[in-house]
């Protein structure tokens, strides 16, 4: 009799485990797993409430941080129509070279930045990155010539390279794979919003008396001072509000921390989430056809996006508009987008 009961109970247990990507996982509406030496049971409603709490705490912050990242990258286009090229005595293709060298160092710094992030934690490394490129943006106001312009673009590329992959990795520690698609789309959309904010800030930067007193000669320099100061302030805020690992963060209570950790563990049961980062793993990433195809697609998407962001104010000024008009008229396309 007992053997029959055991068989029936095992059948019922198997029926409750749907197949997800070929891996059996418990029904999220009634999950029972072992963690921290206890048996944890949570409902689908509890999980949904947790995701909403994560969204309200994480998504606005990372979107604003990425917005500042993109503004600090593209504000050079607004500064150009404000007199940057003339004041720095840039000739020929020197301005374009300065723009291009940024992307070379941006691409090179992405992988090393994420390797550092995995060791020190996203809640420490991402705010540090924001402070770094905010400071680089701010000191751009004191650039005097082409060599200084080149140096500042190199440091900006190194500082900003880890931002997008860092946020993507950070989100993957809190959200399931099917939840990531929407969240990554939300924070990346800040790249479109940056054109609108950048044009508005460049047309009439905030008249902060202290910044105006520090401002060197040339109105375009005020763009970098104001936007760099705002970015550094955001970086400081991020140190206090960007959460750490799900199992350690303080903005979740004990039960929410367990659910946040276990729901990802259940989804990835049987998969290796803790592969050791070594040369073979890095080499495998570079030899993956999927990675190269995704990279090519992203490259083709970014060519027009970055080109419009960097050169739209110049194009508008070439049409006969004044400096302020050129800045303001660069806003509507991004609003529509």
- What is the CATH C level class, in words? Mainly Alpha
CATH architecture: Up-down Bundle
**In percent, how much strand structure appears in the residues?**
under 5%
Secondary-structure-derived class: mainly alpha
Low-pLDDT ranges: 1-38
For the largest beta sheet, what order do the strands appear in spatially? Answer: 1-2
The ordered H/E elements are HEEEEHHHHHHHHHHHHHHH
For the CA atoms, what is the radius of gyration?
24 Å
Overall description:
It is found in: Membrane. It is a multi-pass membrane protein. InterPro entries: MFS, MFS_dom, MFS_trans_sf. This is Major facilitator superfamily (MFS) profile domain-containing protein. With 337 residues, the chain is mostly helical. It has one domain: MFS general substrate transporter like domains (Growth Hormone, Chain: A, Up-down Bundle), CATH 1.20.1250. The chain contains 16 helices and four strands. It has helices at 2-15, 44-81, 84-87, 94-120, 122-139, 146-160, 163-172, 177-188, 190-203, 209-214, 220-241, 254-267, 279-286, 289-318, 323-329, 331-336; strands spanning 19-20, 23-24, 31-35, 38-42. Strands 1-2 form a two-stranded antiparallel ribbon. Strands 3-4 form a two-stranded antiparallel sheet. Helix 2 runs parallel beside helix 8 (177-188), helix 4 (94-120) runs antiparallel to helix 5 (122-139) and helix 9 (190-203) runs antiparallel to helix 15. The protein is elongated and about 65 Å long. It starts with a helix and ends with a helix.
């Amino acid at each position: 009799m007992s053997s029959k009961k055991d068989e029936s109970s095992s059948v019922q247990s198997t029926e409750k485990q749907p197949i997800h990507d070929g891996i059996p996982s418990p029904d999220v509406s009634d999950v029972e797993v072992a963690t921290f030496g206890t048996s944890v049971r949570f409902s689908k409603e509890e999980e949904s409430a947790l995701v909403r709490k994560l969204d309200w705490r994480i998504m606005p912050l990372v979107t604003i941080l990425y917005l500042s990242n993109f503004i600090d990258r593209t504000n050079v286009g607004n500064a150009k129509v404000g007199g940057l090229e003339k004041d720095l005595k840039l000739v020929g293709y020197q301005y374009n070279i300065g723009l291009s060298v940024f992307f070379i160092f941006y691409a090179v710094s992405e992988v090393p930045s994420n390797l550092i992030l995995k060791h020190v934690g996203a809640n420490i490394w991402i705010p540090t990155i924001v402070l770094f490129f905010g400071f680089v943006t701010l000191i751009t106001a004191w650039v005097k010539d082409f060599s200084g312009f080149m140096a500042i673009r190199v440091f900006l590329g190194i500082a900003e390279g880890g931002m997008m992959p860092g946020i993507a990795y950070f989100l993957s520690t809190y959200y399931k794979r099917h939840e990531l698609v929407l969240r990554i789309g939300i924070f990346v959309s800040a790249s479109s919003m940056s054109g609108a904010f950048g044009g508005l800030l460049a047309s009439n930067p905030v008249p902060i008396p202290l910044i105006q007193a520090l401002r060197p000669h040339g109105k375009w320099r005020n763009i970098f001072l104001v936007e760099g100061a705002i970015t550094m302030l955001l970086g400081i805020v991020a140190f206090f509000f960007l959460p750490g690992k799900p199992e350690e963060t303080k903005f979740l209570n004990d039960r929410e921390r367990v659910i946040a950790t276990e729901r990802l563990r259940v989804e990835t049961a049987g998969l290796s989430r803790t592969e050791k980062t070594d040369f073979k793993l890095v080499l495998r990433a570079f030899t993956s056809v999927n990675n190269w195809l995704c990279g090519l697609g992203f490259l083709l998407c970014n060519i027009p996006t970055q080109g419009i962001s960097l050169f739209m104010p110049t194009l508008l000024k070439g049409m006969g508009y004044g400096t302020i008009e050129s800045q303001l008229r660069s806003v509507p396309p991004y609003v529509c987008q």
